[in-house]
Amino acid sequence: MMTSANVMKVGLFALCIGLCGCERQISFAGDVQPILAENCIECHNPGAEGYSSSGFSLMDYDAVMRGTNFGPVIIANDSQSSVLYLVISHKTEREIHMPPHHDEALAEGRGASLTPEQIDTIRAWIDQGALNN
Known about the structure:
The chain is mostly helical and 133 residues long. It is built from six helices and no strands.
């Protein structure tokens, strides 16, 4: 039988979890890679426009972490400094938003913006250390 003290402890624990912003562990293979495969890999694979212009491949974890010809796009534990997060969340110049989805885009190809949930998944994965899991 739960005493009122135990109910209070459970309530405080739940409140603490909510306040600390604890998130479930995001998996590259199970959560991130499917988003990239569905929305990005068409242009970011060898021979395609995004790869040809930047050298950025999304074929696997190692390629994602290698980044572009200009440097890394993921800073583990820091989505706000990670170019990948910034371009998909539209926190950069409009011309380089990814996937390109409007007439001002520098890229020729067009796609649809990622959903807020997809963007948040990638943000959380980066902030959790961008692990190969």
